[in-house]
């Protein structure tokens, strides 16, 4: 409230000065006449914290012309930043309704009004204004990102692609890598409709924009697995890990399924041993321990985890070690292990598993677009004792 008062008080003084100057020398006017009922009424509203009424008075008094447009824009911008979007819209709509604006002033006003609509959630109106600015080649550095943000929020990936193609960067990310993500979104939608051929075509388009896109390979692997093409699926999954080793935890269950179907578990064991040397997290250790447990029993699996926990301390690893040890314990030792198991479960309960490397957002599932900063492919597994 104080911020608004400190803005409106000098604005009110400026309005009074400008109005007096504008009327000076006009027939039937005097310097005091404009400082009469209307002007003092507006100041009185301000001092009594009746900003709505004060704004109405000052807008009535303040003729829109080249000398006052900036005051209107600044006032509307202040209201939008304060979350008072209806007031901002009213001020900016009042501006663009005037025929006296120059082209530059009109486009400035359109940009501000578009942002008002966007803040109010009126995306269709904001889209129309930003499109108009782009068509007139005005404020492209602001209008393009704002319009792209609308299309991303609405998951309108086709239009998002068209806008991103006009941009060199989306934030700090190359536009081409972001466009590849948009094609991956479209591919996921096609896959959900069971249109696998269309999904594959869209993934090829993603590869044209970013040949190193790990997400595209991950989706390809899922489609191949869905079709029963397990060798092709495994090749795609391995490509994902080559492009981004941080995605390894997302692959291991699917790889296990494919190798089991092909009866090539020895190949998976070799792959996991190699992956453990490249990946610092606990997931490949636990995956290999599961195979050992199935093939040789719980004791070798527990011994393997115990050996790895010294190199990569992990609550998840300890929890699985306790699970394997419980089946081989009894009496007081069994009871003590149950206490430890309960402690590890509590430590892991509701713990985030992923973190955005840009803004620090944390969550339980992998997001390809960070819900916090809206950047793409920046959410990765959390490493450390309570994570990977």
Short summary:
By secondary structure, this protein is mainly α.
Report on the structure:
The protein has helices at residues 2-23, 37-47, 51-61, 69-81, 85-96, 103-119, 123-135, 140-153, 157-164, 175-192, 196-209, 214-226, 230-243, 248-262, 265-278, 283-296, 298-309, 315-326, 331-348, and strands spanning 169-170, 173-174, 354-356, 362-363, 379-381. It has 388 residues and is mainly α. A hairpin with a 2-residue loop joins strand 1 and strand 2 (173-174). The strands form two sheets. A three-stranded antiparallel beta sheet has the order 4-3-5, with no helix packed on it. The radius of gyration is 31 Å and the shape is elongated. 36% of the residues are buried. Among the domains are: 2-162, Tetratricopeptide repeat domain (Serine Threonine Protein Phosphatase 5, Tetratricopeptide repeat, Alpha Horseshoe), CATH 1.25.40.10; 350-388, Rubrerythrin, domain 2 (Single Sheet), CATH 2.20.28. Helices cover 68% and strands 3% of the residues. Helix 6 (103-119) packs antiparallel against helix 7 (123-135). The model is unreliable at 23-36 (pLDDT under 50). The two termini are 47 Å apart.
